[in-house]
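Researcher: I'm preparing a figure for a lab meeting and need a structural model of a single chain. I don't have an experimental structure, so a prediction will have to do for now. The sequence is pasted below. Please return the structure as tokens so I can convert it later.
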Amino acid sequence: MTEIDALLARARLRRHPDVPADTIPYEDSDYPGYGEDLTRVADARPADPAATRDLRTLCDSLLGALAPGSLRFLTDQLPEPECAWLLGCALHVAGTDEGARFWWQYAAGAGHAPSAYCLSLHHRARGEAHAAAFWYDQTGLDATTDRDTIPVTGTCPPVSCTFDASVPTVLRVLSRLSSPGARRRPLRTDAVTTYVAHAVRRGYARHPGVEIPVPGPRFADRVSSLLTEAAR
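Model: Understood. Here is the structure written out token by token.
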């Protein structure tokens, strides 16, 4: 037995170790912790009603398209990035914004650009300019041109119409077609939204020190069965 083996053999593990929280307080600043008073004055932004409206419109539109098989999970409680994006939208509609933000962060960290866009809108709606700009940069929207072309009939010679098909433009159009929350969602959407919100809130109550949603066992099976049952 080596000297290290002997030391490890005498080591004892505490039954209830005091583990510090693995989180860092969020500050909406280029340089958190420096020039706190000056930063708060210079970077203060009012809440953005347009961002609030756009985010709710986006979430309502996505949830209205939920169908059996559209939510995929890695484990019983951990969704795949695109599923985390959709579940984050469900939490946002249900008023659980903290859980929505963390699932969007999880998906955006895996390179899911739509989740980064939701985070940008979320922080703009709260007046957090630096965070909004950071997540918008992750979307790559400024580096791509998303345009679509449709033919216009009844003209001679034939012509085509090219228009901006980017997500921000589509959201602005949808926002003006209907008020956020006014459109009736399918029954399966309401069922999933209600269940996800309740499961996440119970998870926060069970694990108050954990910030990422912990919905509990059989979460994936329950969500999938709700979508299947409500679609019948």
